Amino acid sequence: MLRILFGEPPRQDEGELQEAMALMERYLNVVRKQMDKQGDPEHYWRKIEIWTVGLKTSLDELEQSVYASDKFAERVTKRYQAEMDDEELDDYYRHVYFYKNGFIRVFSILDKLGTLLNTVLQLETEKVKHRFSYFTVLRQIRFKGSHPRLAERLTALKDQYGDALQRLRKRRNTEIHHMNAEMQDDLWQRHRSLSDKIKLEDIQANLQDLQDGFHMACETLLIAFEELCKLEK
């Protein structure tokens, strides 16, 4: 959808994105067969279907945000906002918009997946923590011990991307609970030297973290839905 902003054709899914989308669609087929077979009087499978469709939509939106953030960043050549003309400043703010949208969606996807896994695997994480995150669910999978291979693979993936996730989570928490990330950066720099121009944050480092978050989301979905499909065979 967003590629039209750059005069490009729609995205053709490939790699881990394509695999993740295909696995979620495969699981949806399983879920719909269960609804047809059982009638789903309690609307359990309908709820699972809605959550899975939501995950597909969120992953699509995350990929688009990562792509658009990177494309607008390519147009930013200055290191200080004061040196930018209006056009470059607009591109910088567009980059920031999609960058923030991206890192928020990384954790949104993980938490939605956590809710799905908690329900399907009957983990009862809500008894441990009323409002839980994906990472709480992952700890609960390990604690329950009923899906050791799933717990091992998801934990290894979390650790692999741990540094990038930590930085993204700090940005996400600042954005949601305190102030906009770029405003916090401005405030910190002004505190250091009131006379200096405001230097931009490291855009390429931020984009790399966002790319890592996207890859982690894709790979996490792949592992989780492989397991969910096996459970319903």
UniProtKB/TrEMBL annotation:
Q: Residue limits of the Cthe-2314-like HEPN domain? A: 51-228
Q: Which InterPro entries match?
A: HEPN_Cthe2314
Pfam families membership = HEPN_Cthe2314
Q: Which domain of life is it from?
A: Bacteria
Question: What is this protein's name?
Answer: Cthe-2314-like HEPN domain-containing protein
Origin organism of this chain? Paenibacillus profundus
| Lineage of the species this protein comes from | Bacteria, Bacillati, Bacillota, Bacilli, Bacillales
